[in-house]
Fold this protein.
Amino acid sequence: MRRKQRLPIIFVAVGLVFLLVIALTSLVLSIVDYGASSSGSEDSEPSLALPYQPGDFTNAGSGWISYSHDGVEALHGVDISEHQANVDWTALKLAGADYAMIRVGYRGYTDGGLFEDAQFRANVAAARAAGLQVGVYFFSQAITEDEARDEARFVLECIDGLDITWPVAFDWETVAAGGRTDRLSGRDMTACALAFCNAIRSAGYTPAIYANVNQGLLYYGYADKALDEVVFWLAEYGQAPSFEHPFQMWQYADSGTLPGVDTPVDLNLSFVDYGAAAAETNSGGDAG
């Protein structure tokens, strides 16, 4: 009787040992396979390289950072909204600003209404009169692709007939707790950004996405190649950027002080002269 009682226990123990051997074998094989794939073989994914070398960035005085590579100079820019109140655009131009990204408007982060920036039209007119290239941005709180397209339509109506020579940017940012975007996923944020940019591109403007490093990683993780057709405007504060994905504009400070602006102002570099490209297109310079 005792031997018969032991038999089921023995069978269970043998079965557990068998399963343990299989699990350990599978683990060893997966480790070996990982080692082979990451040992520098030609099939392994290469690490990303910095788009711009840190040594090419220098302090240019008056708070500006300059970038020069192979004789090509990046352009100095600011981004401006009604929070800067009255701007002396001529003084800003003389201080070295080549372009300005001016806020068109914003979506409220609670009720979701769309509002035009109180200084938008005056800023665009004065900046162009002072000789600066002008792009615009919209502070988004979209939570669906349809809302992002509504924001793009709002922007297009606002800039219709204005001399916009720089990109039109989607600026989605988190706000204080309790905002309507609190639980928006990175995937949905990316879908909103691309919906906005597609509508802007369809209207004949150059679309852009503004993002900090963490958002940028999400955008590139979800959008990947779709960002090849979008200007990426990176916000990363410091002497040189460390972001390893492509970007064409860089916001490197949020508390700059410049003549013509009484409040702290965001400072930027653009590695592409969008004004020259727009002028060439308008003059038919790219015709065959």
